[in-house]
Design brief:
The protein is built from 16 helices and 9 strands. The chain is α+β, with helices and mostly antiparallel strands. The strands form 3 sheets. Strands 1, 2, 3 and 4 form a 4-stranded antiparallel sheet that branches.
């Protein structure tokens, strides 16, 4: 909302000038705007905000023009900036310079998130808070790049494929990100730029043809049975690492993501069936229901912590996992995601049917399970085919 008020100010004895105060979204400009209109004190009606002297036609026209121009400037800016960023000072500066400031990339990100949250509030779309947090983390990656290489925000009109290549090189060479991680960041960036095009903030989408190509997932981002056994049997002397190992093994036998492990409530998420206890809960990422038994390995850890698993922060947990892997001698970098992938492959290679594993993991489709978790352990191949292999002479 824009509020415009004119005030008559005595600049010298018996000399009065008209000034304008500007307030946008309840945030006033720090200084007034000079209209260049000089009046007698008796010519101004403060309450009605009009010049009462009918002979001052030119001054009246100029006053109305100022009102109209300020309103037009505010309308233009409100289509580009969030209410939080649109202040009286911003309107005053844009009007004074007679320019319409270009919207920046980070401003578009913020507007995009506000729009998504408003749609969710009106129940037009559904998405989890964790999804929003991930998208904001992708926005923060772009923000960090701009801070390091441009020391400022970046005008949306300057975004092009060369800019995308610069971000990619920064992610690969400076930050050490994976190709697929950067593709996810670019997915959101392209979506944000498309959003600004639909809003009319840019005339065309300069990165609409920028290719997004995901590399096939690395199949061996899980542990084999003997590696998991190596972790569970290793003697540890640090309470922190012992707890870290317990959390990791719990994930390997529950298939929980970090968020699901953090939010797990034994009484709320388990039930008895034919003498056994089962876990049933919706996946935090997809809201698809999962169903699996409480395996003895998971039960042991639950019992150890009185059925309330104390979980580290995600950052600390991954840091401790890295240390645990180095001490135990695991070549693969241990992460919370590795634990979940280990669960899927562990169950499949122990002979549990694919469709059952898919339900245990809470996948939307069995095709997801086939694509991500169908790595067959050599031991399973051996057991299934050993009767066909002739014994050596």
């Amino acid at each position: 909302m824009l509020k415009i008020r004119f005030k008559l100010r005595e600049t010298s004895p018996n000399s009065y000038h008209l000034y304008c105060t500007i307030r946008a979204n309840k945030k006033p400009a720090k200084s007034t705007l000079s209209t260049g209109i000089r009046l007698e004190k008796s010519d101004w009606d403060k309450k009605r905000q009009i010049i009462t002297n009918s002979e001052l036609t030119f001054e009246n026209q100029k006053l109305q023009q100022i009102r109209n121009d300020l309103q037009d400037t505010y309308k233009f800016l409100s289509s580009k900036l969030s209410p939080y960023n649109l202040t009286g000072d911003v309107v005053k500066r844009a009007y004074s310079l007679n320019e319409k400031p270009s919207i920046t990339l980070l401003q578009v990100y913020n507007s995009f998130f506000e729009w998504r949250l408003e749609l969710r509030k009106r129940k037009k779309v559904k998405f989890k808070d964790i999804t929003l947090a991930t998208q904001m983390a992708h926005r923060d990656f772009i923000k960090k790049f701009l801070e390091e290489f441009y020391d400022t925000d970046y005008k949306l009109e300057f975004i092009d494929e060369d800019f995308m290549d610069e971000v990619y090189d920064y992610g690969i060479k400076v930050k050490g990100n994976s190709h697929n991680h950067l593709m996810k960041i670019f997915q959101l960036l392209k979506r944000v730029v498309r959003f600004s095009k639909e809003k009319g903030w840019i005339n065309y989408n300069p990165i609409s043809l920028y290719p997004l190509c995901f590399e096939p997932g690395v199949s061996d981002n899980f542990l084999f049975d003997y590696e998991l056994d190596k972790i569970t049997s290793h003697t540890l002397f640090s309470d922190v690492l012992i707890k870290t190992r317990d959390l990791f093994v719990a994930q390997c036998w529950s298939g929980f993501s970090y968020v699901e492990l953090y939010n797990f409530n034994y009484e709320e998420h388990t039930f008895l069936y034919k003498g056994g206890r089962f876990i049933t809960k919706d996946r935090s990422k997809t809201s698809v229901g999962s169903l699996l038994p409480v395996f003895p390995e998971f039960e042991r850890i639950l019992k150890k912590y009185n059925y309330k698993i104390p979980v580290y922060s995600n950052q600390a947990y991954n840091r401790y996992l890295k240390e645990l892997g180095a001490i135990v001698g695991i070549d693969l970098k241990l992460t919370t995601h590795v634990a979940r992938k280990t669960a899927g492959n562990l169950w499949l290679n122990k002979g549990i049917k694919m469709e059952v594993v898919s339900k245990m993991l809470g996948h939307k489709s069995i095709k997801t399970t086939e694509r991500l978790y169908a790595k067959v352990h050599p031991e399973l191949v051996f057991q299934e085919t050993k009767h066909l292999i002739s014994s050596p002479a």
